[in-house]
Amino acid sequence: MREPLPPVLEPAVVERAVAAALAEDLGWGDVTTEALVPREQQGRGVFLVKGSGVVCGLSVAEAVFRQVDPRLRFQPMLPEGSPVERGALAAHVEGSMASILKAERTALNFLQRLSGVASETAAYVAAVDGLPVRIIDTRKTTPGLRALEKYAVRVGGGHNHRAHLGDGVLIKDNHLAALNSRGLTLADAVALARARAPHTLRVEVEVTSLAQAQEATAAGADLLLLDNMTPEAMRAVAEWTRVLPGPRPLLEASGGVRLETVRAVAETGVDLISVGALTHSARALDISLEVEG
User: Fold this and answer.
1) Is 289 helix (H, G, I), strand (E, B) or coil?
2) To which H or E segment does residue 192 belong?
3) What are the extents of the domains in the chain?
4) Within 37-135, where are the H helices?
5) Residue 26's Cα: distance from chain center in Å?
6) pLDDT tens, per residue, the chain with 293 residues
7) Residues 71, 73, 86, 172: which is the catalytic one?
8) From its phi and psi, is residue 18 left (phi > 0), alpha (psi between -120 and 50) or beta?
9) What CATH class is the domain 11-125+282-292?
10) Has 194 been annotated as catalytic?
11) What is the assigned CATH class of domain 128-280?
12) Crossing angle of helices 173-180 and 186-196, rounded to 10°
């Protein structure tokens, strides 16, 4: 089997995110450092991991230091995506102590946040190990950081759902409610999407029962989003699709999936499990920057 390609993070995306974060934190200067630390004083900082998880965002942390002071020397001590335990050293940075201190919090914010997302994703992926299912993210991301957080999901072994609203057709309950108020049906919704959206995009429909799943499939849906359905109901849909003639729709389980329940969901026969908690509830990995004069 071919090894999966490593996750890629576009440099331009990183530079924009870092510039915005630095403007937020350093746009008015650092009055403490400027009062206490002379610009010529040299030093070294080490990123110390204080918990267990997956390291992610080293290149983003490096970009922070580079934007603050291009003369700083940043060196990762672990490959991106490495599993770590408490006490691990993730990277070090050398150069002007004042520059290191000015960049410290922003670099840590990115590194802790992205490592937290990668760690949470890795836990879900491990929980369904051996089953033919993918763990995928959602659009429940931190505003302005979606590309970075979806990258962290990939580093953790997960996969990405839509990156934005133009990335695929997903007909949800509120879309159907809007159409129903005009006398249109689920089948009409799929037909309109086919007629008006680019032909290159697949059409996914949110359903809450076997009957709705059958209606959406008959209308030509490519994917079914099984929303907040019980494992028994999801299994019934999966068993029904397996006996369909011709191509069957992919099945995505969504809604209220937790780490302790994700394997039971995977065992129903769905193809994808979307988990908003990968990004909206991931706990930051505890990492500190220890400086030496």
Assistant:
1) strand
2) helix 186-196
3) 11-125+282-292, 128-280
4) 58-68, 97-127
5) 27
6) 455 667 889 999 999 999 999 999 999 999 999 999 999 999 999 999 999 999 999 999 999 999 999 999 999 999 999 999 999 999 999 999 999 999 999 999 999 999 999 999 999 999 999 999 999 999 999 999 999 999 999 999 999 999 999 999 999 999 999 999 999 999 999 999 999 999 999 999 999 999 999 999 999 999 999 999 999 999 999 999 999 998 999 999 999 999 999 999 999 999 999 999 999 999 999 999 999 87
7) 172
8) alpha
9) alpha beta
10) no
11) alpha beta
12) 100
pTM over 0.70: yes
135: amino acid identity, one letter: I
Concerning whether 206 is annotated as a catalytic residue, the answer is: yes
Token pair for residue 205?
């429909």
Residue 173 is among the residues annotated as catalytic for this protein? no
Measured torsion, CA atoms of residues 249, 252, 253, 257, in degrees rounded to the nearest 10: 170
H or E element that contains 251: strand 250-254
Rounded to whole angstroms, what are the CA distances from 166 to 16, 144, 191, 193, 273?
21, 17, 18, 12, 21
Told to judge if 140 belongs to the known catalytic residues of this protein, a careful annotator would answer yes
Q: Which of 139, 140, 194, 202 is catalytic?
A: 140
* Contact residues for 144 (Cβ-Cβ < 8 A; gap 6+): 17, 20
